[in-house]
Amino acid sequence: MKDVITITFPDGSFQRFPAGITVQEIAVLRNENDGDGVVAGKVNNRLVDLSVPLLEGGALEYVTAESEEGLSILRHSTSHIMAQAVQEVFEGAQVAIGPAIADGFYYDFDYFRPFTVDDLELVEKKMREIINEALPFIREEVDREAAIKLFQDRNEPYKVELIRDFPDEKFSLYRQGSFVDLCRGPHLPSTNSVKSFRLTGVAGAYWRGDERNRMLQRIYGTAFPDEEALNGYLQRLEEAKRRDHRRLGKELGLFSIHEEAGAGLVIYHPRGALLRTILEDFEKREHLKRGYDIVKGPQILKLELWEKSGHLDNYRENMYFTEVDNQKYGLKPMNCLAHMLIYKSSIRSYRDLPLRYFELGTVHRHEKTGVLHGLMRVREFTQDDAHIFCTPAQLKDEIKGIIQFVQEVMGLFDFSYEMELSTRPEKSIGSDEAWENATGALMSVLQENGIPFAVDEGAGAFYGPKIDIKLKDSLGRAWQCATIQCDFTLPERFDLTYVGTDGERHRPVMLHRVILGALERFMGVLIEHFGGAFPFWLAPVQMIIIPIAERHHAYADEVYQKAKMKKFRVEKDYRNEKLGFRIREAQLKKIPYMLIIGDREVDSCGIAPRTREGKDLECQNVEDFLGAIQSERKVFGEEVI
RNA sequence: GCCAGCGUAGCUCAGCGGUAGAGCAACUGAUUCGUAAUCAGUAGGUCGGUGGUUCAAUCCCACUCGCUGGCUCCA
Q1: Domain count, chain A
Q2: With A324 labelled, which of A114, A380, A398, A626 sits at a CA distance of 20 to 30 A?
Q3: Catalytic: A512?
Q4: Is residue A336 flagged as an active site residue?
Q5: Could you confirm whether A466 is annotated as catalytic?
Q6: For residues A99 and A101, what is the distance between their CA atoms, to the nearest angstrom?
């Protein structure tokens, strides 16, 4: 063993220390620890506790609570403190797992009764006590047998199960006070390194995420380096509430969902229906431009057809059924069947392919009650669905074309997103070979085009693997929108063929794909993304005319007519209210332009526009203004009316 | 579907054993106003639904419908 070790620091400098010096001690020597900001070290790029003694030289850097890794350590340690508190307050509560997550942490417990929101206060109080005790987090390593015995003795069956399922022979433990947890670490040096935390909620959660298992009680919380950062986070949550599409849907008069009509069934009000119509028109135009044919299938199809497609076996619990003239029907949960029948209605030649059938198809899916959520998760929705039938040789080009389509559209709406490749799920149909082909095709297009993607094992559709694009709502929750699904199986089941150059019949490949996904969900995400302040071309109301007094109404009518003639979506507010009041209301309705008309404007034959951002534009000629904003309704270079 | 919380006027919410209140909105009147809320008055509720306990239920209990946050599942 060396006596002296050499440590290099991120700035390139190095320094010698006696072997066995701890990361913490070096920090003190180098004044790294003032402000308590340092929560862990990173030796040769591996996160370690500050208390770890260094026996070998290497690269050392410090992790502060401000960094992503540091924040995660802070939160993870806070979850241990919470677990200790819960066990002290609720005797007999057993611990399961308690990781740091995106905005905080949680810990799962098994207790004879569920925790309530009121219990959180008791836990928070106990946590503060534990923090004040300044208990050190102490790491130790034990072998498998000792770890199992320890947790058996402590009556922690979940920990024992975890240890049994890990292949490792050595296990690290972290102790603080009387509490001990199985944990990889690293952790803060002491409980009093936690400065600002908040418990945010309770929820049930299945042990190991499997609904066949027992439901545990999960407590969520978050922690920050200081009170200011915590308050900032809580404020961001408040702001997110103001962008909530359910709230804006009501405030902007877009849609409603009624208990008496049914859960998960959206009712569109005039402005919401208009917004949706604009999106639908946009979709039809863009699909026709890209070589798709618009088709339309029926809402119900005979049960035998769903049996043939495999939906009955794999999707039955999500389907609605009905019976007409002694004949059973299934209400469509997907649009593919009719498209298959269109394909089969005639003999297809390789010269016909690819065939791209597009449908704004309304589908019904029986979603479990607990998952319904505003527009994001509903029971009746309309997809911008298409099915592409092509030769195996055309497959990759088709996938590439769809990805480009998605990229253009997401760019237009200014969404950031990541692509995700989902592979074969447990419940699925088709041969291994077909799945490998399909998965390989999707993956190679992503790779060849240098598109970064994550892999989600086992998350494919029952008939094939897929590439998904998830968009985030105001709270950062991801919702799947666009998806590209490769299917070698349905063409087989329906015996789809085309005649090739050799005069023989061949099997086409099929792609299922959506760009926006479900219009309902997309609108939900869109509303939150723009906070209701839609781009001009999408705004259900593009401008509102606000005359100052009654004597300006006649002139205001002229302006209104002029805007109408140019096909702008214009409204007028002639209410007997002060200007400031009506401006405020128009602003809350997120109307892009307010056209103010008073004596000055009438005299100079103009209008005084004001933007919803609160910017006053100079008094100007009506025609000039309308001409100027025509460019704002251009989408992909085309004016959208 | 599971866990927890919640359903009171159009909206946001207070009240919690003795059958209901506020602000905003609505309506009426006055005010005709220059860039984010003019003033006054009026009206509005089988307290989500169905049962039960009680002399008495918006309040307690059960069931049910719906909503919210999670879990599982999914566009």
Answers
A1: 4
A2: A380
A3: yes
A4: yes
A5: yes
A6: 6
